[in-house]
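A note from the maintainers: we've had questions about how concatenated examples are separated. There is no special marker in the raw files; a new sequence line simply starts the next protein. For clarity in this README we add a label.
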Amino acid sequence: MPFQLPSFAHRVFRYRSTRITSEGLQFLIFALAIGIAAINTGNNLFYLLLAMMLSLILVSGVAAEYCLRRLELRRHVPDLLFLNTSVTTVLAVKNRKSRLTSFSLTLCDVGEGQAVFPQVEIHALPPGASRLLSYQLTPTRRGKLHLSGVRISTEFPFGLFTKRAFYPMEDVTVVCPELRPMSERLLQGLFAAGYEQAVHRRGHGSELYNLRLYQAGDDSRSIHWLTTARTSQLTIRETETEEQRRAIIHLTTSVPASHDALFERAVSLAASLVQHLMQHGYSIQLRVGSERSSFGQGAAHRLELFRMLALCQRSTPTAKSMEQDEWSDGPSDLDGGGTVVVVQAWCDSESGETEFPRVFIDGEVIPGAAYAT
């Protein structure tokens, strides 16, 4: 039967590691030389010096271990991040020991198995005390970002060894595509397609549409009293309907592996279109491959669309996937009207790789190159 460590020891050693520093290596070489001299000469002073040096190594290990024990950590990171955009991530550290202070702590978030985030330091953390630490997190890849835990290290007390402890703390956040300003060429194309034009008609709303004489059955609350007093005739205030402009953004996902970078540009462009149009009051539906959202407005709906774009994946072109990518609804077939914007990273009729994705508005391609600056 193989030897098994007790559960407590297994937990301790599983998340612990020790690395010797350059100063520690020099110290060990010197201790080895002292040991050889003690054996060769039999001098008690050499043995005493060797014992003191070995005791320093022992004290270093024990002190470092106690510095790393009984620490409580909490992390705060936003639910949604944006590619290449820095956000502040906060780590809260508490020393749960009742008597001993933790010295010279270096903390680093660990994501996807690698400590790739900036290090933050605490010089001393007294018993029962807490510290709030922050660092700038800049995601470099779209999709889910897995934070597996926090790695804490210390070289206390003599700097001979770096003792590390890993505190598991799972967090998963979503990295949305990078938002870029829309280029002037694309904005002109949107306007030329009638994309920024509203329809004015009578209906329920708050803006004035027309003034007319009162007719039997009209709501008395709509009487425009100022005009009525001036003309001595009952006048009704008609309002203009709050026309909700609608748009559908369709991102095709059938893209070969050789066009992966171009697909990422297309995803970023689709996200920038969502941001731009929602800022101008549009109700947006997003279609990513065969997946589609509902029409909606507001911050919650915008975050839902960003999440869809963050998690979308490129698919290898097949007959089925390309059929799903084809736009089957014409603009006139949409209930309530609307305009269709198709963002296409690749077309099977293309020869070679293009540098920028193509944009179609109501079936017509917008000429030009870069759409997001």
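[label: protein 2]
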Amino acid sequence: MRAQRNEKLTLGYMRANQPWDILPEEYFACAMPNKAKPPLFFYGFAFPFSGTFTTSIESLTAMQRNIPAEYDWSDREKYTSADAICKYIESRIEINVEFRIRRSLVDCNPDILFIFYIYSSWMPHQPKAPEWVSQLAKVVAEIFEEDLGWKAPEPKWYIDNYMRAYEDDLDFN
């Protein structure tokens, strides 16, 4: 007897329903049926595409200028703005887990330049993000706003950019 097909496990459904506040359990790598490899999902803050690439980069540069001078990452000759922002935020976080903030393009969303992500769907051993992820997101959002002058949107789950190469009918059942 064949298992019933789950529409949620098609790329088209995933694209149509992203971003998520809470990622469905089925999308965590540890929960996929038959050892299928699902898309990679990132949990983070969407940095908007502001109409032109230049305008978007200027917004990032303004954030980098807000990094205090005592941090080497404020030097725009040495660091790209996005990398400097990630390094600065990492330096401001004190947490008892390994933490990195990175950036990634996202699948099929022209309004987002990229996301600053703090967690991925491939990391957990259970099909949910640990409690500390939402707490960390609050701290990161405060640093974005208070230190760097950017009111970040609520963090959400997004499909990683590498899925752009695939059609909507890709099935993970």
